[in-house]
Amino acid sequence: MNDRASRLFNCCTGFAEPKWSAYVALQIGGCVDHQGETEGGVTYQRAEFFTVYGVVMDGDVRMVEAITDIHTVSLINALDVARELSTLSGLTLKVCPRLFA
Predict the structure, then answer these.
(1) 10 Å Cβ neighbour count for 49?
(2) Other C-beta atoms within 10 Å of 37: how many?
(3) If DSSP states are collapsed to H, E and C, what string results for the chain?
(4) 78 backbone dihedrals φ, ψ, rounded to 5°
(5) CA 13/CA 70 separation, integer angstroms
(6) CA–CA separation, 54 vs 12, rounded Å?
(7) Intra-chain end-to-end CA distance of the chain, in Å
(8) Degrees to nearest 5, angle at CA 75 with 40 and 35
(9) Contact at 8 Å (CB) between 75 and 46?
(10) Which of 50, 67, 82, 100 keeps 20 to 30 A from 11, CA to CA?
């Protein structure tokens, strides 16, 4: 595993780049760790780290799959990684609406 893979794809099996065609967009959201259990969709004020998700549509159902966790409390640094993934994938980056709730 190289540094790029561990930074960009640390939630993907084998740190492998995902099949981007499976996603309709990317989304970044704030997360909190509760003794090994992750709570996603928190505001940036509560966030302990951020996750970039691939957004999957299954009919009318919207689901997300984690692509990478960004272990920083800096939203600016997290957005830098998210923008890199957006550029790499060609997918639009969206911000979880709850991030600024």
Answers:
(1) 15
(2) 7
(3) CCHHHHHHCCCCHHHCCCCHHHCCEEEEEEEEEECCEEEEEECCCCCCEEEEEEEEEECCEEEEEEEEEECCCCHHHHHHHHHHHHHHHCCCEEECHHHHC
(4) -65, -40
(5) 16
(6) 11
(7) 37
(8) 35
(9) no
(10) 100
- The answer to whether the CB of 93 falls within 8 A of the CB of 68 is no
Tokens for 57, please give them: 């549509």
Per residue of the chain (101 residues), give pLDDT as tens: 689 999 999 999 999 999 999 999 999 999 999 998 999 999 999 999 999 999 999 888 889 999 999 999 899 999 999 999 999 999 999 999 999 98
Do residues 92 and 26 make contact, with C-beta atoms less than 8 angstroms apart?
yes
Q: Which of 25, 51, 26 is nearest to 40 (CA)?
A: 51
Q: Are strands 49-58 and 61-70 parallel, antiparallel or unpaired?
A: antiparallel
What distance in Å separates the CA atoms of residue 93 and residue 24, rounded to the nearest whole number?
10
Question: Where do we find the tokens 């509760």?
Answer: 34
